[in-house]
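Hi R.,

As promised, here are both runs. First protein below:
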Amino acid sequence: MARGIYIVANEKVSENAIALLNSIRYYDPDISVYLIPFNDNYQNLAATLNRLHNVQIFPDLDFLNQFTQKIAEIFERDFLALPNKMRKLVAWFGPLDEFLYIDTDIIVFEKIAKILDYLSEYGFICNDYHHAGRGLQDIFSPLVREEKIFTEAQLSDVFNSGFWASKKGTITLERMYELLRECSQHREYFDFSSQVTDQPILNYIVLNSIPKRFNLVKIPGGGPGSWAGSKHFQQKDIVLYDGEKKLQYLHWAGIPMKPGAPYRGLWEYYRYLNEPKPTETSTVEPKKITFWQRIINKTKSLF
């Protein structure tokens, strides 16, 4: 049985992808990792990740392109903010029998693929507090609850789409296209107000087609958080703790990955784990010269 991890990336997120893979390989040098190209601009990143960490390209690029074209046919052009984010859905039809999908704005703090062990009992695994924090925001509109499109039990299982696991064959391609067409016909079901793309659609697909789901934070006593917007995490060595509980991963969902971002120093540690960190250069803007200062300077130049 083939197990492993999928990521979606291109050159634009190269720095994040390298940081993520550095953290994955720090704790697990052997797990298979596949890159699903976000678009055609991925070759340099693919070569780098292959050289550093033996990351393979998703093997059926023809199917990936066919799937992307199908998305374009099913959804109106203004329905999805970034349609290529839907490419992560091909994880159900790739080479891995059991797989973990991870967004590139994440770093991990353990042998993260061990959560695949839960797939012996469940068809879908997630690991976040979206249901308890933002609730249906960035997923479903209030109409879904009002019209009882899903039960309250199902709505308590909504999740962030940046970290999840499932099994090949849990959803057939025919069923996938059927559910995507349903989504395209009911724009009113979804909350796209924050420019999310795949998250509402993925939740609709999973809640409709995989009855045995498990959110790891719902264990007795609760699991640790994972969102970088949480300010209370404490760093010990090169990991973070939520109280006494070690985080499994940290996700900068909705937070720009740039200097000054929360826990930036920890991200930099993993990004430059295998190479020297570049020296930061100070960019000091020149002072603006007023009109009268220009007159004075010109007068001085005459004498």
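And here is the second one, sequence first, then its structure tokens:
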Amino acid sequence: MAVFTLQPTTTSFGAAYTNVNRIVRSLDVPGAAKRAGSWFGTWGTDVNVRSNPTTGSTVLTRLPAGVEVQVSCQEQGGTVVVDPYTNDWWAYLPLYGGYVTNIYLTSPDNQLPGVPLC
């Protein structure tokens, strides 16, 4: 399957990525199974996805600004401080096989609502 879109040239990569992802998620493909998890927006540029829920673990990839990511579970790990925020909760992103600090996810609380523990 291929999905093509036309978007204004002023659309950021993160916004275009999210727009296409929303279209694909909405498709009802016979025989396909939807992955369990909740979707959250991100903020920040080049947000690290790490192999474990600590800032000292290997960086697997970096997320562009403003994308939506699927979170399957969350757990406490290393404390991250991005002034004025402090958080030790990390979200597991199954599509990337790693963790991102909850600081960079759009949620009003340190722990993500409705997301189970890993």
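A quick note on the second one: Residues 13-26 form the longest helix (14 residues). Let me know what you think.

Best,
J.
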